[in-house]
Amino acid sequence: MLLSQYTDNKIEAGCDEAGRGCLAGPVFAAAVIFPKEYQNEMLNESKKLTAKQRILLRTIIEKDALAWAVASVDNNEIDEINILNASFLAMNRAIEQLSLKPELLLIDGNRFKSQTDMDYQCIVKGDSLYESIAAASILAKSYRDDYMLKLHEEYPCYGWKSNKGYPTKKHYEAIAMNGITQYHRKSFALDKQLTLQF
Fold it and tell me: How far apart are CA 105 and CA 12, in angstroms?
């Protein structure tokens, strides 16, 4: 069972991102505020859930949360400011869209650059510890997956329906054969012989 709160008396928003290691597409982020002492035994980090479980939980999260928001930073912005800063920016955009202002941000990971005056706490593997962060990971992942499915219809040869833009053999082979699209991250090494710049 994941923990419902980091503190006893603050409005907390869990924050996480998805798509940081992809060769194409945006990075997505989400922020979620649950009621105090909220419990849902189904919640878990997005990577441990199936796509069907994530979609089911997305509906539950959006219904049960006091506030939630999803935001993204596209591949052109990623190329301009690098993927780490783009991940921070996506989280900040999601936080700014919340209808309820948090008193504490729970950030998945070990670093964050805040664009607000809100207190924050970085938590390594936070999506496997706190419900609000796990919920944010589910929203970010599921909304990004939906977005990549739409891009797949435009460019089916890259296999985005299954790889969602991540570096797979099929994705690399498609780049080698067809070149890159306007959705690829040009600042990443798009040749499988090179080291990826995550």
Answer: 6
Q: Which two structure tokens, joined as six digits, stand for 157? A: 């040869």
**CA 35 – CA 52 distance, rounded (Å):** 25
Tell me the pTM.
0.94
What spatial distance separates the first Cα and last Cα of the chain, rounded to whole Å?
32
| Residue boundaries of the structural domains of the chain | 12-178
pLDDT-derived band at 47 (thresholds 50, 70, 90) equals: confident
| Residue owning tokens 């008396």 | 9
d(CA 44, CA 135): 8
- CATH classification code of 12-178: 3.30.420.10
The secondary structure of residue 193, as a DSSP letter, is: T
Closest CA to 4 of 42, 40, 48, 45: 40
- Render pLDDT for 5-16 as a digit per residue (tens, 0 to 9): 999 999 999 999
Q: Which two tokens stand for residue 155?
A: 């460019």
